[in-house]
Design a protein that fits this description.
single chain; globular; seven-stranded antiparallel beta sheet; 22 strands; mainly beta; disordered N terminus
């Protein structure tokens, strides 16, 4: 069984004049281009990302120029702007987000490591793909017990897609604390862009974060997988309408993240798109397991 993380929405195809929505995003202070900035048209299924040089482009219907665009990048203030303004200026300067680092005191003696949501290759089933607009797929990990714990390693598993023939694709890992009121992902715990590559020959990638000494917050942590709408990730997918039997071509973006069924109800999956977080809930046939992204979190306890 395969799951596609796609909005459940039927969109009527209309003949509309399209324009090329393009420009560049820079740091407001340094004037350096910012790669992998996500731009999403609010309340629509349109979006794109900047490339390595901070450049973005997207064909859109002319009427979308009156919509608002959500511009977001790790370490910068989220900004909402009318598309027409950005279309005319072609340049946007993002303001760096100011924050205070909490004092980190790490015990010199760390105990044995252990893994939350351990995954084996035979347990992988289905996958999460993205199209139309950039998404973040996040999995919640609880903090059980009073002992301090630190993130040592994150492992993400992939599903091979025969229609994507590039050797690698890129995505970003996000590490969030938990909003005490909504229980949704809140603030980034890592103030740097963690962009990884998935390789065609491998079904997983691991990221060592032990040197950052990230302590698991009291309310747990979300690990997020953020799609990047860049040319290297793009591929086309031909789908057949089950009713009309007509074929259509869709733009898709790699990678396809693998999923697993877990019995532990603490593992909560959420998706961020079109400006808000929503629950992603798919249960097994017997209703005892949840389908979640295949992410393992390796922790180390302090003594």
């Amino acid at each position: 069984m395969r799951f596609l993380l796609l909005p459940l929405l039927l969109v009527a195809q209309i003949n509309a004049q399209e324009v090329l929505f393009e420009g560049n995003v820079f740091d407001s202070k340094t004037k350096d281009p910012i790669p992998y900035v996500n731009l999403s048209f609010l309340n629509t299924l349109k979006g794109t990302s900047t490339d390595d040089n901070g450049h973005f482009y997207l064909d859109i219907p002319n009427e979308l120029l009156n919509n608002k665009v959500h511009i977001s990048s790790l370490g910068y203030k989220d900004t909402i702007i009318v598309a027409k303004t950005l279309y005319k200026s072609k340049i946007f300067n993002l303001v760096e987000e100011s924050f205070e680092l909490e004092e980190v005191v790490v015990s010199k003696s760390l105990g044995d490591s252990y893994v939350l949501n351990p995954i084996s290759s035979y347990s992988l089933t289905g996958g999460f793909a993205s199209s139309a607009t950039p998404w973040v797929l996040a999995l919640y990990f609880p903090n059980i017990g009073a002992q301090k714990k630190y993130i040592e390693n994150i492992t993400v598993f992939f599903q091979k897609n025969p229609k994507f023939n590039q050797r690698t694709s890129r995505f970003r890992i996000r590490v969030y604390n938990v909003d005490p009121a909504t229980k949704n992902p809140n603030k980034d715990l890592v103030r740097k862009s963690l962009v990884l590559e998935s390789e065609l020959e491998k079904d997983y990638v691991s990221l060592d974060l032990s040197s950052l000494n990230i302590e698991i917050p009291e309310n747990g942590v979300y690990i997020g997988l953020e799609w990047l709408f860049i040319s290297n990730n793009w591929f086309r997918n031909v789908v057949t309408n089950p009713i009309t039997k007509k074929k259509s071509v869709e733009d898709r973006f790699a990678p396809t993240f693998s999923g697993v069924y877990v019995k532990n109800q603490n593992y909560r999956a959420m998706v961020y798109g079109m400006g808000k977080w929503t629950d992603f809930t798919v249960k097994s046939k017997n209703g005892t397991e949840n389908f979640v992204p295949a992410i393992s979190l390796k922790l180390k306890k302090s003594n």
